[in-house]
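Write out the 3D structure for:
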Amino acid sequence: MAKTIGIKEEAKLEIVELAALLHDIADSKFHDGNEDIGPRKAADFLSSISVDLETVHHVQEIIRNMSFKSSLGKINFHSKELEVVQDADRLDAIGAIGIARAFSFGGFKQREFYNPDIPPNLKMSKDEYKNSKGPTINHFYEKLLLLKDKMNTETGKELALKRHQFMEMYLAHFYSEWEGTE
C-alpha cells in the first residue's frame, strides 16, 4: 500500500519502502512503551547494509513521527514520505483488516469486546492513549473512526473513505446484534 500511494504521490520510493518495512521493527507497544528502540534498531539495520546516512535519518524520523499517538503530541518533522507511509499504516488500521487487528490486539491485551458502561474517551492525551485499557469497541471511536480525517494524501483520502464506511456499517450491525434488534 505504501508503494502504491508513494508512486501516485510522487514520493521518494526508496525511503517509503524502507520506512514501511521497518516502522514496526520494535513497536513501543511491545517494548514497555520505549519509543526510541524502533528508530535505533532501524538505523542499526540500515547502517549494516550500507544505506546512506541521510536516508537512515529520514527513515528514523518517519518511524518517530508516524504513529497515531504521535499525532496527539507535538510533531517536529514532516515529509512527503512520512505522509505516504503514515497513510498506508492508517489504512491498515481501518476497514475489514483493521477490525480484525483491533479485536486481535484487544484479545491479546485481555480487553472486553464491548462494555456499554464504559464510554469511549474522546479527548485522550498521548499518555492516556498509551495506557488505555478500554473495551475494543471504544477503540473505534478513540482512534479508528478518526483516521479517515487524518489522511495526508489525496490517494489516502480516497482509499480511506470506503474502509471508513465499512467500519460504520460493521458497528451498526454489532449494536443491532448486541441489543437483539436485528
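The chain has a mean pLDDT of 90.
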